[in-house]
Amino acid sequence: MAQLWGGRFTKETNKLVKEFNDSLPFDKNLIEEDIEGSIAHASMLGKQEIIPLADSEKIVAELKAILEEVREGSFEIKEGYEDVHSLIEATLIDRIGETGKRLHTGRSRNDQVALDMKLYTRKKVKETSDLLLDLQKVLLEIMEENKETIMPGFTHLQKAQPVTLAHHVGAYFEMFVRDRSRLTDLYRRMNLCPLGSGALAGTTYPLDRDYVSELLGFDGPTRNSMDSVSDRDYIVDYLSALSLVMMHLSRFSEEIIIWNSNEYRFIELDDSYSTGSSIMPQKKNPDIAELVRGKTGRVYGSLMSILTTLKGIPLAYNKDMQEDKEPVFDTVITVNRSIELFAGMLSTMKVNKDVMHNSAGKGFTNATDAADYLVNKGVPFRDAHSIIGRLVLICIEKGISMDELELSEYRKISDVFEEDIYEAIALKTCVDKRNTKGAPGSEAIQEEIDFCRNYIAEECAK
């Protein structure tokens, strides 16, 4: 039994048509979800006396046996079946005979595959969220260890103001908070059960859709049978959320690549997360970060693929929807593996704190604080801005930093400067006095770290 239809056909399906149409090579990824949905459906059929209770129990028992084989890896996925649904139904009939033919009562492949994809996506949403939480735990460790690790903050990729590594990494922690929030919202929106919608117009059998929803852990059944079998919004939502995850990972990857370069040397990646060159023996390449950055485009492509597929489909189900699966399967593997590897790369990297500190000092990141010093002495800000700009130019010409410039040079430009200018522009002073909420100062960053720690504790407790 290779297909679930054929009674009204008089010719064999063209071989190329069959190969083009069959989805088993990829929808076999849904095998566990397909069996789980069938167990719930069969249980409901027996409860409602749509089929004899004894038949229902026999079907459920055999489906559970098949599911156990799948999970153990001993179940043989035989080729030649149109899809995973026909594979499982045929296997069931082979094992328990005519009773197995009752399983599909009151069900269409349309609502069956809609259920399978929801069960699969729901499971993967949770996996992605858990992996992001693991990554956030790594970020928190870095933050706690680097509350006083001063580094340059950048705008336009130019050194701007001094911050700490904890503050910089904390920005990514916030991005992943938003990512997990999107996944939570998606889970809530999608958690309605489509099974029982039939092909598009429900069924005449007295199905108990609420019971099936409860068995499968849904909040309830979907409300419109046509929407139920044609809805793939949750897949667009998931791929969109994953695209944002990859965007954030890609931005972080770009910084890791820059920080790891010979010119910066802010960090050193562990050998276990680096590769070498086939010709240049000195090379140690940040391949994980580069691959994550590169695979981001692949994930974007999957999102655009499903959006393009869905944009012209009339209600209700159309075969185009078969194209929802491969992009999702590929994207889930790509994103979840990227998160896991990225966390490992960060947890093993070495931070060169002195290099970061020296870089902040040599980049005039304390220039704004020097201007603020003058303002606090009564100089109008616009004048202070001009004075410090002239001093920076002098330092550039001399090849020194502002804290290396002699006081006499300061006073040539403005007699407002006193010996206390050096304390005012010390990098630690520049950072520590910035304690507005969300800033890098010691009090503010401790508040941020406390939030991150509590966030992780609360999320782990759920």
Strand-helix topology:
Layout: H1 15-21, H2 24-27, H3 31-47, H4 53-72, H5 84-96, H6 109-145, E1 150-155, E2 158-164, H7 165-190, H8 209-215, H9 225-230, H10 233-259, E3 267-268, H11 287-310, H12 325-348, E4 350-351, H13 353-362, H14 367-376, H15 381-398, H16 407-413, H17 421-424, H18 427-432, H19 442-461
Helix pairs in contact: 3-4, 3-6, 3-8, 4-5, 6-7, 6-12, 6-19, 7-10, 7-19, 10-11, 10-12, 11-12, 14-15
Brief rundown of the structure:
This protein has 462 residues and is mostly helical.
Main sheet makeup: 2 strands, antiparallel
Percent of sequence in beta strands:
under 5%
Radius of gyration: 30 Å
Broad shape? elongated
Q: Please tell me the overall pLDDT.
A: 94
Poorly predicted spans: none
Give the proportion of residues in helices: 55-70%
Can you tell me about this structure?
The chain has 462 residues and is mainly alpha-helical. The protein is 62% helix and 4% strand. The chain has 19 helices and 4 strands. A hairpin with a 2-residue loop joins strand 1 (150-155) and strand 2. The two termini are 45 Å apart.
